[in-house]
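Changelog-adjacent note: as of this version, every example in the card shows the full chain rather than a window. The one below runs 431 residues end to end.
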Amino acid sequence: MPQPSSPHTTPAIYSTLPLTAWTAVALLWFAGGSNYLTRTTITTMRGSIIEDIPMTDAQFGMLTTAFLWFYAAVSPFGGFLADRFSRRLVVIGSVVLWSSITIITAQVESFGPFLILRALLGLSQAFYIPAAVAMIVDFHLGPTRALAGGIHLTGLVFGSTIGGLGGWLAEKYGWSDAYLYIGIPNLALAVLLFFFLRDPPREYRGSMDAASPAEKIRLVDALRSLARPGPYYFFLACQAVQGGVSWIIIGWIPTLMREQFSMAQSTAGFSSLGLLYGLQMTGLLIGGFWSDRWSRANPRARIIIPAVAVMVSTPVFVATGWFPSISLTLLGLGMWGLAMGFLGANNMPIICLVVDARYRATSVGIMNCCTAVFGGIAVYGVGALRDAKIGVTSIIMLTAAGVFTCGLLLWLVNVSLKKRDAGAPQLIPAT
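Full-length structure tokens:
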């Protein structure tokens, strides 16, 4: 029986359902927006929450850490389920769960139940991204892969951007109502997904004999394949560091700006996250389009473009730490957002270059696990540093070191892939 296509071979078939493929991107755009809105809105209404539920900075940080660690623990299993079973059903089930948990969260009155529900929210959302991004790369083979993935991720970024609305709603109506306004419409979205979202054909099956039985995906085989030393290791490390940096920015920059520059809660949330996510959306579209074009001549363009963008961001973060100003802070946020857009659009195309096509969702689940673990450590760590009276400058410089490390690891993915491909048979890359 012919073997499934490797990450370096062009698939034998292409999607014959272009309308279905782009419909899936559109539907998942809304689902992704819901996913990130429900997870990040808490950071912009901190003041309103702690007025009703008193807690220390470390405890407030733990709310995000609990989300991230449960998200991390379940992500590899969520990715495996998306490889093994229907990706469509995994997506729909995840949306139903996190919408219900968001509605229930509006009713809590103490820290303990709030912490438990944040952990359950992380568990419910862990299934979505591996299934969704794997669906998109199965629908979009090659020339539209990064752009389609980038468009989907603009939905996630849009959800994070309007997370700033949570701070305004919390100030005007209370944080509980804000959670209700977010949770209830998402249940209607799950109904739309049930009727209109379709499963794509699996790309790796395109190179198999039509008469051959479908191969069952086994977790042990996936883990054994992904455990082989190579560029995936560097990419995993890059994503872990990126998770720490991003969650420091998402979790604490609105608060740090409010305190350092005497801003209102809503103003700090909108200005920081609005700029960050606005430029990230721009980067997702530009980076996806640019990568799809350049990768035709050099597949490693998927890696080079975001690596350079991340490295260029480092000096601005250093300058922000030494010379605090609102202009430098916003410039650093904007450059990081643009770099994260370039990286986000190319995440799955990079995965397609470095792992077996059969285990893409599992590899994303493991990657999300590492990202969330380091993000949780970073968010809690900054809260602990603030409780210990560590200054903003030190926190910003720590963030700058993370930005540089992220870019360096991403470049090592490029170097490692180049060395591996130099010793491999010369095949046409599936970009």
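Structural remarks: Residues 316 and 332 are 5 Å apart (CA to CA).
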